[in-house]
Amino acid sequence: MDMLKPISNEFKGMVRTMASLAFVGTAACGLFAVAPANAQETKGSLHLEIEVETTQGAVMVAVYSTAETYNGGKPVAARRVALTDTNMSTVFEGLPYGQYAIKAFHDMDNNGQLTTNPFGAPIEPYAFSNGAKAHYGPPKFEEAAITISTPKLTDKLSFLP
Amino acid sequence: MINRRSFLKGAAGLMASATLTPKLKGNIGPLGFHNAPAFGIAPETMTLVDGLVPEALSGTLYRNGPAQFRRGEQILDHWFDGDGLVRSFTIQGGQAVLRAQFAQTVKRARDEAAGRFIMPGFGTRAEAGAPVGAPDDANAANTSLMLVGDQLWALWEAGSPYGIDPSDLSTKGPVTLRPDLAQMPFSAHPKVDQDGTIWNFGMAYGSPVTFIWALSPEGKVIKAETVELPMASYLHDWAVSETKLIIPLQPWVFTKRHPPFSESLEWQPEKGLQVLVVDKNDFSNRKLYELPAGAFFHIGAAHEDKDGTVRFDICLADNPTLDATTGAAMVLGKPIDRPEPKLCMVALHPSGKSSITRTPFSAEFPTIDPRTREQKRETVFTVTEGKNTRNIGYRFNAVMAMDWTSQTPQVFDFGPDVLVEEPVFAPDPETQSLGWLLVPALHLTKRVTRLHVFDATRVDQGPVATWQSRHALPLSFHGVWASAT
Fold it and tell me: Closest Cα partner for A41 from A92, A94, A93, A91?
């Protein structure tokens, strides 16, 4: 652990899990194809409404299908949404029915990471699905979870203060 | 949170035996730790009840302190956690006009919206699920103030300064000194060099480092650097001399990384009081001094002798005076035994030797004539305990001027019905060395706030003028004088 950077307990969890959103480059990090295990499995699309304060930079979104991966593993889908308006939307297609939780941040300085100050506190806006809020770190998977059980589900990611 | 009903049941015996503890009327609480009105105090011309106001005294005294202790049945768990109420006393032509407004912080807005305390503080836990994402979410903006150019900043210690309008005390919002330094801690005790450079530190929660700020007089960042410390002490105040940053590290250290702060701290006296002295121009040039253990909140000022010896005055106690238990007891108005800080002078010699000159005088909230900051310390002003004090946590009812040359104090004792706050020095602009002390006081039986003016050279003669408000304000911590001239 880097002792010169006092990432207090309050933010260590947040930054570590957000770091798992280490996006490199651009929209090439699109949807990871999810191979259906069962030909009869039903899939839906997730429509995300994004609300930001400024159009600087981009919003980085990661979709997780289990609490384990949400806490520090690979998302099933991830995307960089370039901002042309303070209200944007993005759609993840072909998600098998089930529970998902989303972590996202507004990458205002375009460095691909959730920027922190010298003491490790996050200084870019972040948001979670289901309107869940940070509490000394990201909300739990269960708090942020949304369920895809129909062909279309809409959720909102608000990055307003 | 302490539930008021269970407190009343359990403390009935204590309350019966206390000589003070005003009855808890509805939602008010003990005077001094009661809620200020939510909409603040509209401009009130105070009544001159005694003396004559010096003609040359013209300007505004700003003060800050916690002023929201109760919401519904909930009572805060520590004095330090109340929302900041910014007060101004504008003195002009012999009149004093009082105003006060709460700093409209994110924390206050969230507690208000919820109708209860949900956000955390020094001694108060956050409610489960409360939206705490970054330091400024918990910023109470309640400890002190500073003037930066034409701006007024309300200071806390674990987050950003809060901008306040100096005329109407409305809140402008958190101040980000540089985009990459958002949410960095900015202590309640910045020190200003003779050339106007502002030095400050920011305490790290749980790590043996601190953040050093140097700002131009207008508030632009000149330096912003993390500095390593020998231990992760609770650091509330420090000193800055002509060429040095002086960081006293008490053995009250963060050992557990979980909120609230006050429960993460452990007293480890075997570590002693370590004082780190850092060269302002070269942070790698450091010296560490080891002194006997002591706990402190406040320091007067530091200066350098010709031979390089650094001296500073400090209010030192045997143990921390405002830990979790004591801070909670203060808010409840319970009688509590607290270690008494005493006024001391520390000397740090270039050889590495150090010494402490200890006086027997109880002292807190030390202040000085700002014009003399880098000079050999002759006088320091403090609050102190008079002969008869009530049996409550806050016992300061007297004002003291300590003459370090003779080590004799001048004291004015207000008696057991009055609580006094930090004396702020207002220089007489027509002189180099004279001035007044502005001392707010809470009269416990009249239930009003008064503002006293002392001749700083004759503290023992008592106030030369006193104004009185219709209101009783909760006690405040620190203030700053903005001269009109």
Answer: A94
